[in-house]
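stuck on whats below:

***
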Amino acid sequence: MTGSGKAAARPHAPEGLKKFPKRKDTMFMQCFDKDGEKTIDVAIQQDKWYKDLHPAIISPAYRLKHGIVKITMQLYGREGYLRQNIFHDYSPETGEYAYGECRHIHGWISKI
């Protein structure tokens, strides 16, 4: 709280960050095989993303069948700023999750 009784404004994005208005509220996902070739490239509105996850995200069998070993995602917020860069690695033998991290707008990195 400030002296005026109002909560201090919290910035939505670091100063100087580029805004992409046409990408607002959208998750972009790319899937790659073991040779680094892109096999899937989709853009999904954020509200639909969480209601109906793509099978590449939830199914080891799907990843194994399609040879997916890496998934990258970019989440743009309601104002069009890139909010998160997400990286997942999967086992080429089983399709199971191996490693992941999320790089947030303010520089934080979360291991997932």
